[in-house]
Amino acid sequence: MTSLPVGIVAALQAEADVLLRRAQPRCAVPLADGCSLLLSGMGPDAARAAAQTLVKNGARALAILGVAGALEASLRNGMLICPGHVLDEQGRVYSSDTAWSARLREQLGAARLDVRTDATLLSLPAPLPTSTAKQEAHARYAAAAVDMESAAVAAVAAESGLPFMALRAIVDERDDELPGPLLAAVDAFGRPVPARLIAALARNPTMIARLPALSSRMNGAIRALRATLAVTGPRLAIP
């Protein structure tokens, strides 16, 4: 697999910026070492379309890079997971490429960075904003963390017969609460929409005090992804 071109999906602008500053939405852009990046926007439909575009453009391995929410209390902000399995809400299970994830763990371990590779990642079509919702999802699916896009990318990889890997850094911990009005104040790429944000804060002024903590959580996750890419490069340690 030494020469496989890797297509990488990132849902959020902040995630894509780890690889390429100011990536244009829904446009595949070349990276080093034959890799390519597509900023998809949030949700399974957007991620599936992005993965399909990358395959059409010649990708022969698919990865998704970004952040995830913790469902297990042991997962803390900034921890890395490369799940062995990805599960969607219908119960469909997709497996990560074992040689690829093992090589990632080996490279990160040599750099004294830990990544959990024995976890299951759950993909749902909408965020889980409350601790109660996260605990219920953990009880129902026995997953360690949750995102919105990995299963869609994994499905395209399975349909195309390509290796797949997900790499996620934990942003919100299990007991963190995500204010619904703030979630509604960003666009499909996770970028604040000023008019929506101002309106949300005007209606809910107590949320202003929560902004620094939320920003700190995202910064912690993004730092973990940057540290990973500094070790692996855009090929993400594919063997």
From TrEMBL:
Domain annotation Nucleoside phosphorylase: ranges: 36-189
Domain of life: Bacteria
InterPro entries (UniProt xref): Nucleoside_phosphorylase_d, Nucleoside_phosphorylase_sf
Matching PANTHER family: 5'-METHYLTHIOADENOSINE/S-ADENOSYLHOMOCYSTEINE NUCLEOSIDASE, 5'-METHYLTHIOADENOSINE_S-ADENOSYLHOMOCYSTEINE NUCLEOSIDASE
One GO biological process term: nucleoside metabolic process
Protein name: Nucleoside phosphorylase
Organismal lineage: Bacteria, Pseudomonadati, Pseudomonadota, Gammaproteobacteria, Pseudomonadales
Pfam families: PNP_UDP_1 (PF01048)
Molecular function per GO: adenosylhomocysteine nucleosidase activity; methylthioadenosine nucleosidase activity
GO cellular-component term (any): cytosol
